[in-house]
Amino acid sequence: MKIAVSGKGGVGKTTISSLLARYWARKGYRVLAVDADPDANFGSALGIDTSGIVPVAKMEQLIAERTGTKPGTVGGFFKMNPKVDDLPEALGRERDGVRLLVMGTVKKGGGGCICPESVLLKALVSHLVLYEKDRVIMDMEAGIEHLGRGTAQGVDRLLIVVEPGRRSIETAEKVRQLTKDIGLHKVAAVGSKVRNAHEEEFLRKNLDDIPLVGILPFSEEIAAADLEGRPPSLDDPEILPAIEKIAAALEPEA
């Protein structure tokens, strides 16, 4: 199963991504957690030490070896289908059944970037989505930059994390439009930091055609874990039932 997670910054998408990854690992699945957000804090949410990790997008020697062109080059000739199938195992860092891969991002100017860095990242994402046998959960920025038309067809669900608020809803609508543009129709939303039935109803009323598959309530445990720099307890009585419900809704047969 391949899940991509998006949403406005600060809504809790990394927290939900990490809880799902840890839950599936506890269930016995091999899980690959992909940090595709420029803020790159998926590792800390998983309790994985990320010191010394260099994002794939900044591995200049690797990019040059795999594409045949030095990073920073725009245009010219380079391999459009570089070898990437060995990278998740070679570059990942693992804890408790979850392997973390930090992607990084390509800084673009103008209308986009056709460069070795972006070619390698897109090839790697395509491999993860279309060929990787593990459960893959991608923590993305507020958009779908890493997904193209080809890889979109392999994503089992794009999960948009929303909190009760107009700006979060507006971001969800923008992401939904982007998914339509590339033909990704398997989209769902998860509510985050929801304090009461009124806020849940606000989300259900304003998400339009995006189905709401679960709610992660506002949690003192999550807030405390953030302050203490540790992953929140998966066994917290508010967290576990919510994650179980979300995970069940994401299963292909659900």
How does the SSE layout of this entry go?
Blueprint: E1 2-6, H1 13-26, E2 31-36, H2 42-46, H3 60-67, H4 87-91, E3 93-95, E4 98-102, H5 116-130, E5 135-140, H6 149-152, E6 157-162, H7 166-181, E7 187-194, H8 197-206, E8 212-217, H9 220-228, H10 239-250
Parallel strand pairs: 1-5, 1-6, 2-4, 2-5, 6-7, 7-8
Antiparallel strand pairs: 3-4
Helix pairs in contact: 1-10, 3-5
Please explain how this structure is put together.
This protein is an alpha/beta fold and 254 residues long. It has one domain: Rossmann fold (3-Layer(aba) Sandwich), CATH 3.40.50.300. 39% of the residues lie in helices and 18% in strands. The chain has helices at residues 13-26, 42-46, 60-67, 87-91, 116-130, 149-152, 166-181, 197-206, 220-228, 239-250; strands at residues 2-6, 31-36, 93-95, 98-102, 135-140, 157-162, 187-194, 212-217. Strands 3-4-2-5-1-6-7-8 form an 8-stranded mixed sheet, with helices on both faces. α7 links the parallel β6 (157-162) and β7 (187-194). α1 packs across α10 and α3 (60-67) crosses α5 (116-130). It is globular and about 55 Å long. The mean pLDDT is 89.
